Inverse folding.
């Protein structure tokens, strides 16, 4: 008995001809064991693409945000000291990405928090299957009619039945995530909104810094060369 997978889909099932003499229930159990073992042995993602667990990434981003906040606080305090020494009286702008981090973290937690363990994909016909996230094959039914035509034809029917169940599972997962606000289009729209907000915030910071430097220059206490003093 041999099951072959490619990128999470069943492409071939080799069934020993002698097994065709067994009852359909026995055949189904043997085939299901081989298929599920193949699923368990396959990497769930392309090895060339690193797997990212959204909740773990959210925790990492919280630490990054805390470190960035601390660094920016030190930078801002240093600039404030320099500005005070120049008697500029200018307010030092703050580059605050905290809100954007919070929104990104919330997005990741939404993705990672979608419950999908109870979603199932099913297929019907002479060979019917039930698949769960993983993916896993949790049930396979083979009728006596499905065994007519020999082991090769039965293998093709198993491939069709399992893949239809996998497609149904994928659609079910997409529906569940869309209902939870974590659909692909929703996430991409949120990422684009964060990109625009980040760029806008950076442009605002640059404008505010330029305005502060104009105030420093206007104070006329450093001979017009403020950049080196700062």
């Amino acid at each position: 008995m041999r099951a072959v997978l490619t990128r999470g889909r069943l492409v071939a099932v080799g069934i020993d001809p002698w097994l065709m003499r067994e009852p359909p229930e026995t055949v189904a159990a043997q085939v299901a064991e081989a298929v599920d073992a193949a699923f368990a042995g396959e990497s769930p993602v392309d090895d060339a693409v690193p797997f990212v667990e959204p909740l773990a990434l959210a925790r990492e981003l919280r630490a990054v945000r805390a470190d960035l906040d601390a660094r920016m606080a030190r930078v801002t305090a240093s600039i404030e000291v320099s500005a005070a020494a120049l008697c500029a009286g200018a307010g030092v702008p703050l580059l605050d990405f905290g809100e954007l981090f919070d929104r990104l973290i919330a997005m990741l937690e939404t993705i990672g928090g979608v419950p999908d363990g109870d979603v199932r994909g099913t297929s019907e016909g002479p060979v019917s299957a039930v698949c769960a996230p993983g993916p896993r094959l949790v049930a396979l039914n083979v009728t006596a009619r499905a065994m007519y035509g020999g082991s090769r034809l039965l293998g093709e029917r198993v491939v069709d039945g399992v893949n239809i169940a996998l497609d149904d599972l994928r659609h079910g997962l997409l529906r569940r995530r869309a209902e939870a606000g974590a659909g692909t289009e929703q996430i991409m729209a949120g990422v684009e909104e964060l990109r625009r907000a980040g760029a806008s915030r950076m442009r605002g910071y640059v404008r505010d810094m330029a305005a502060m430097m104009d105030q420093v220059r206007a104070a006329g206490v450093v001979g017009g060369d403020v950049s080196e003093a700062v």
